[in-house]
Amino acid sequence: MPPPPPPPPLLLFLDFDSTLTTTSTLPLIASIATRTTHPALPSLSQAYARHLSAHDRTYRPARPDRTTIPQELAYLDDLRPVERASVERIEAAGLFRGVRTRDVDVAAARVVGDGQVRLRAGFADLLKCVRRRRRGGGGGGGGGKVAIVSVAWSRRFIYGVLSAWASRCEGGDGGVRVGDVDVRANEIAGDGSGGLDRVFGAEGGVWTAGDKERVMSGVIEAAVGGNSSVPRTIYIGDSPTDLACLIKAEVGICIRDGAMTGEQRELQGTLERVGVECLHVGRFEDEQMEDGGKRLWWARDFEEVCQSGVMGELSE
């Protein structure tokens, strides 16, 4: 009797801020140039809030009337001018002026070393699961990949955080490998100019929920290549900016802390408003809903994800 076919390739996508990390890293990134809160940051935050509020006052359908997934995704995509203006204000204010590549590396190592940035419990287990799939052990060799997709800055900072975290694991890296993690995010120019890159050229950077889905789709297409096996996609995020990716993934998981953050509560409210069921991963069933609708899951950390069966054979 022929052996059973290997499981499909596993593509695990993660948001960074408040998903992979336990708190937002934005204030820390914004202080790279000054080592303290940049004096322009409060006014930049206020300007963004005013612009967003003005946009929401005139956007239609208004929030209570957006009751479908397409309506909500259209609203999130319409935020691009708000995000573009914010990036341009950041550049004009010189938030990252004087920052060079080494400054980003040093800052990433420092904030992990002094405990300002902590990764969510169970991340090492997630990486090990995907590593076993990639090398053909344990899970059957269907292949595996981990990608971080973030609207934050910067790619180098995220890599630096991962590297600093891995070096603090037991035995050097504790059997964890972060070098193969693919990070897709915005970047700070390393020449001291204070500029921010535009991943999509004239269209801008990774700024919106739709941008994140676009990046995710590119990773999936590259992973499939000439392989006829359709990958199993898992996306884990915590905020409305993750909505498009959560919906696109075969398995979408929302991170929810015991005391939920404002963005976690906003995503929860959005899902309830558009009629998307979200159950704890402890109740996970790898089956489609009978009515063809979309069901998401929520977890407090990656340990709950690993224990739930979401990762299939890999979590056993």
List the helices and strands and how they pair.
Elements: E1 10-14, H1 16-20, H2 26-30, H3 41-58, H4 69-77, H5 80-93, H6 101-113, H7 123-135, E2 144-153, H8 155-167, E3 182-186, H9 209-224, E4 232-237, H10 243-248, E5 251-255, H11 262-274, E6 277-280, E7 295-299, H12 302-308
Helix pairs in contact: 3-5, 6-8
Give a structural overview.
By secondary structure, this protein is an alpha/beta fold. 42% of the residues lie in helices and 13% in strands. It has helices at residues 16-20, 26-30, 41-58, 69-77, 80-93, 101-113, 123-135, 155-167, 209-224, 243-248, 262-274, 302-308; strands at 10-14, 144-153, 182-186, 232-237, 251-255, 277-280, 295-299. It has a 7-stranded parallel sheet with strand order 3-2-1-4-5-7-6, sandwiched between helices. The longest helix is centred in the first third of the chain and has 18 residues, at 41-58. The chain starts with 9 loop residues before the first strand and ends in an 8-residue tail after the last helix. 38% of the residues are buried. Mean pLDDT is 88; it is low at 137-141.
